Amino acid sequence: MAEQDPRKPAAAAPHYHGHRDRLWAKFREAGASALADYELLEILLFRALPRRDTKPIAKALIERFGSFAEVLSAPVRLLTEIDGIGEKAAVELKLVEAAAQRLTGGKLRNRPVLGSWRQVLEHCRSTMAFADKEQFRILFLDKRNTLIADEVQQSGTVDHTPVYPREVVKRALELSATAIILVHNHPSGDPTPSRPDIDMTRKIIEIAGPMGIAIHDHVIVGKDGHASMKGLKLI
Fold it and tell me: What is the mean pLDDT of the chain?
């Protein structure tokens, strides 16, 4: 093996290596709460981009999408529009999003949902709040209010999702559910229920009631928070 000429200086490590070490140390010693959104993104991108300075890329992602959560929720096709983000890096970010959703969903399994309302809201926000299209989700519960299934029934456009009340009730009967919680998102960010939202919910209640299926709530989530139709006394 050829030896390095002692007259030539050793190649310097890329300038960002020291920065990476400092960022790792900050995370280990102080935790994620001590990191800005772009710093946490930097760390997530280390593995996908081992030979790139991830700091400017992370900052560009935050500038484009607004927050850490919105970056993870962005579709791959938009993530790859950012200089430095290829398909591999985009998929790494989507993997983190999937892990977060699996974690929040797992907290609801085999637990009475109405006694774990904070976890319900966390799960709904992590899965839907930052999506760029409307989704209509249903949590199906048994007689003990334990979660049977968590399903996305419909996906729509940026401001509309078609919902068919009879199909909602039919699916509840197929799963032997005795109660359901309806959830959908508003990509605009404002979770305030619209008149069509209210009318559709009341139609589902009208059909489900005679079948012995209770509608515990209809929750709307958005980037700016959430709204409960039950809490607002709309149902």
Answer: 85
- Amino acid residing at 164: Y
* DSSP code per residue over 79-103: HTTSTT--HHHHHHHHHHHHHHHHH
- Model pLDDT for residues 171-217, shown as the tens digit of each residue: 999 999 999 999 999 988 889 999 999 999 999 999 999 999 999 99
Q: Measured on CA atoms in the order 29, 33, 37, 41, is the torsion positive or negative?
A: positive
- The span from the CA of 12 to the CA of 10, in Å, is 6
pLDDT at 5 over 80: no
Residue with tokens 């974690």: 103
User: Quick one: fold of 16-102?
Assistant: DNA polymerase; domain 1 (1.10.150)
Q: What is the mean pLDDT of residues 120-133?
A: 81
Q: Which of 120, 130, 140, 104 is nearest to 188 (CA)?
A: 130
Question: 218 by DSSP, 3-state: which?
Answer: strand
For residues 178 and 214, give the distance between their C-alpha atoms in angstroms, rounded to a whole number: 6
In this chain, the answer to whether the domains covering 16-102 and 112-228 adopt an identical fold is no
Q: For the chain, which residues make up each domain, given as ranges?
A: 16-102, 112-228
CATH class belonging to 112-228: alpha beta
